[in-house]
Design the sequence.
């Protein structure tokens, strides 16, 4: 990775902490900041009901906290305050949710704090909080976690986290940053081209925290998670813990935020009191570092940059996979704990880095200018994978070690200007260059292997997930027009130009295919969007939109589809996917009730689908017409000054035409893409002015359409789990307690169920975590 790291990245990594120390030293004695008013820190629950969202009663919460405890216990009612959050993800500039013609969801810092007490896994937080997003997987991969049945793009302060190929490339975009530095998560539903290729399901953006207003502020947080049903709840196999610190402040024109954490994740105990499959769960140590520096150059000009680094190390213990009678895969420590003897070039490593530098001018020619450069680099050398105990075809490798090296750098520019009070224009240009390379190494496993554990010299190193280089350029124009006091319209266009080069090779699971030479290709496309909102009355609004998304096909799958003797340039498989999205929504509130409903339909001519072949136990990649459809609804009720309820429900389905026979030939899409229905019910109760109780029920439904039609080898079986917790503001600091899977139910998340029925992957059927208790204590100075 050092060979490709830019000089700017190296300088930021070395000089960032030094600059912070110098600024603090020059500012004189540190000023200890008093803890902010709890009423100001508490924010309301936000949802897809933009502008009339299902909200906690911010005014009543503030009154209950500020009043004496006896007064709070009286539960005096007050009027509901409807929050209209300001978001940037919907249109790449600040707008209120009620101004957007699309469905959005916001997860605020208060909700994030509660969820992080349960788990550090960001995908689990999204799975519980976002209607239409896949249920929690409890693993790092985003397998089975789509948004409205299609892949979303993930952004971190504007930096894209997903490379071409997405989760099909075993991508882990949600472990590329420290979740403790996130202040807000914004979700834009449905295909969009505003951020370039790769957002056919929508956009999920993580916005980082700002600095404290004082010269120096230090926040410390300690959290731990254990399993109540484990034979030794605080033993080495059941206790995970995380220590983190955040230092921030403002020094004249400068501001800073520095975060560091150490996260030790040990074993996960499932609902049957066994160690869940350690191939996917736990036994890792993460060290993270995040620095964010800013400078107000003038009253209207600002320069800001951040650097994020995460290093993951494996625990080192050697496990054997055991299959229970119920089909769940569990783990037990191997009697032989001799470590593997790796070579200098294949020692396991997992490092992820993000860099961003952004310049903004708030008053340039009467408009606003934003320029951003970013760099992201991932280096992963996985542990040796043992498949010897699984019955495999003779030519299939019974062991392998995957190495992956990804680089990307890009540039975003945009300029927005308002013409009077009714017309706004946004124009911009984006560029990104991605380079991906992956190799699978296979080793000899002779009779002495388990004694020597020698994996220094592979016997085969030509198994690839085809390496490629991809460059994209995008030009866009967006406009908003407030036609009347009730009617607002928006529309835009984006042109995307793509060039790529694919290397030669053969996929590790495509042993029956011939070695395929590489090649080059190019494609382009234009995407449009048009939408509007109409205010029916003071509390109700309807909105609708047509929007297109542009997607470059997964390049490593393209190489699989094209015969070795056919040039890539002439293959239909490289055609981009243009997704048409139609959406209609309604949002509003009545007194203490708020509600929203959104229905959608998408279609594309060159979709990306998989069909499992029961004879070979592998899937066939298929570029064919596809469509998805469904709805989300959100309801909120402020029952009293102390009690509130918040519920969501989402359902989606999808079909595709594998043989191109038209409407009569459509069959169900795989459950890898289409999620089963999901519903949540959340309650919060202000027990006293210092203690808040919370509870959450998550229900996931069945899905068997694809199984019945022979598309999948498995069917999704539904389940329901409940979490409860308490947040207690102490005289000094804050204590959080969260109990997950309260009734200790043994079940399989959809991501694990997707391995059932396939004898090649039976060792990956791992149960969800059983009952766990999470504790957190935070304090600031």
Sequence:
């Amino acid at each position: 990775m050092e060979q490709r790291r830019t000089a700017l990245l190296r300088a930021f990594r070395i000089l960032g902490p030094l600059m912070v120390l110098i600024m603090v030293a020059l500012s004189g004695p540190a000023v200890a900041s008093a803890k902010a008013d709890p009423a100001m820190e508490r924010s309301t629950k936000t949802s897809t009901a933009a502008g009339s969202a299902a909200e906690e009663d911010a005014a009543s919460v503030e009154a209950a906290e500020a009043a004496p405890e006896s007064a709070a216990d009286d539960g005096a009612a007050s009027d509901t305050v409807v929050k209209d959050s300001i978001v940037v993800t919907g249109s790449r500039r600040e707008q209120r949710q009620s101004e957007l013609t699309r469905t959005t969801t916001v997860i605020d810092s208060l909700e994030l704090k509660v969820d992080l007490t349960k788990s550090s896994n960001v995908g689990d937080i999204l799975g519980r909080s976002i209607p239409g997003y896949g249920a929690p997987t409890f693993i790092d991969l985003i397998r089975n976690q789509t948004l409205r049945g299609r892949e979303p793009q993930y952004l971190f302060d504007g930096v894209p986290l997903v490379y071409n190929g997405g989760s099909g490339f075993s991508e882990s975009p949600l472990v590329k940053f420290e979740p403790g530095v996130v202040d807000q998560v914004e979700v834009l539903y449905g295909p969009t081209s505003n951020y370039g290729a790769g957002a056919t399901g929508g956009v999920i953006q993580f916005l980082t925290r700002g600095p404290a207003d004082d010269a120096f502020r230090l926040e410390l947080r300690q959290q731990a998670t254990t399993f109540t049903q484990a034979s030794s709840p605080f033993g080495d196999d059941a206790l995970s813990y995380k220590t983190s610190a955040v230092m921030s402040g403002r020094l004249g024109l400068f501001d800073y935020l520095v975060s560091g954490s150490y996260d030790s994740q040990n074993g996960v105990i499932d609902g049957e009191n066994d160690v869940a499959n350690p191939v996917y769960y736990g036994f890792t140590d993460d060290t993270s570092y995040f620095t964010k520096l800013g400078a107000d150059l003038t009253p209207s000009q600002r320069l800001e940059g951040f650097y994020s680094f995460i290093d993951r190390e494996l625990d080192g213990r050697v496990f054997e996979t055991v299959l229970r009678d119920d089909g769940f895969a569990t783990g037990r420590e191997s009697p032989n704990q001799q470590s593997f003897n790796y070579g200098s070039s294949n020692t396991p490593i997992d490092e992820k880095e993000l860099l961003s530098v952004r310049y903004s001018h708030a008053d340039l020619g009467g408009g606003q200018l934003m320029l951003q450069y970013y760099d992201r680099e991932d280096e992963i050398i996985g542990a040796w994978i043992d498949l010897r105990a699984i019955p495999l075809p003779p030519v299939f490798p019974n062991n392998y070690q995957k190495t992956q090296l990804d680089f990307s750098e890009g540039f975003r520019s945009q300029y927005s200007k308002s013409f009077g009070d009714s017309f706004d224009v946004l124009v911009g240009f984006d560029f990104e260059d991605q380079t991906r390379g992956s190799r699978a190494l296979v080793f000899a496993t002779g009779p002495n292997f388990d004694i020597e554990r020698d994996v220094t010299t592979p016997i085969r190193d030509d198994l690839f997930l085809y390496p490629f280089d991809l460059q994209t350029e995008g030009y866009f124009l967006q406009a908003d027009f407030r036609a009347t006091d009730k009617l607002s319209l928006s529309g835009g266009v984006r042109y995307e130009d793509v060039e790529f080069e694919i290397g030669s090779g053969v996929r590790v699971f495509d042993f029956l295919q011939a070695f395929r030479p590489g090649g080059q290709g190019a494609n382009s496309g234009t995407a449009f969007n048009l939408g509007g909102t109409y205010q029916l009355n003071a509390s109700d609004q309807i909105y609708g939109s047509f929007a297109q998304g542009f997607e470059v096909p997964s390049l490593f799958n393209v190489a699989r589809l094209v015969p070795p003797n056919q040039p890539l340039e002439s293959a239909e498989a490289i055609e981009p996917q243009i997704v048409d999205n139609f959406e209609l929504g309604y949002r509003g509130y009545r007194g203490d009730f708020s509600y929203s409903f959104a229905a959608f339909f998408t279609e594309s001519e060159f979709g990306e689908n998989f069909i499992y072949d029961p004879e070979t136990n592998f899937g066939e990649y298929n570029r064919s017409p596809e469509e998805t459809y469904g709805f989300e609804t959100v309801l909120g009720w402020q029952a009293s000054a102390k009690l509130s309820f918040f519920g969501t429900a989402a359902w989606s389905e999808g079909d595709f035409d594998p043989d191109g026979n038209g409407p009569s030939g459509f069959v169900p899409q795989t459950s890898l893409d289409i999620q089963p229905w999901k519903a949540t019910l959340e309650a919060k109760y202000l027990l006293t002015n210092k203690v808040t109780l919370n509870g959450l029920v998550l229900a996931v439904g069945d899905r068997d359409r694809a199984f019945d039609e022979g598309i999948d080898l498995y069917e999704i079986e539904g389940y329901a789990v409940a979490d409860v917790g308490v947040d207690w503001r102490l005289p000094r600091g804050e204590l959080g307690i969260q109990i997950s899977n309260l009734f200790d139910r043994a079940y399989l998340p959809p991501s694990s169920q997707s391995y059932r029925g396939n004898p090649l992957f039976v060792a990956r059927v791992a149960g969800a975590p059983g009952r766990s208790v999470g504790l957190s204590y935070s304090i600031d100075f």
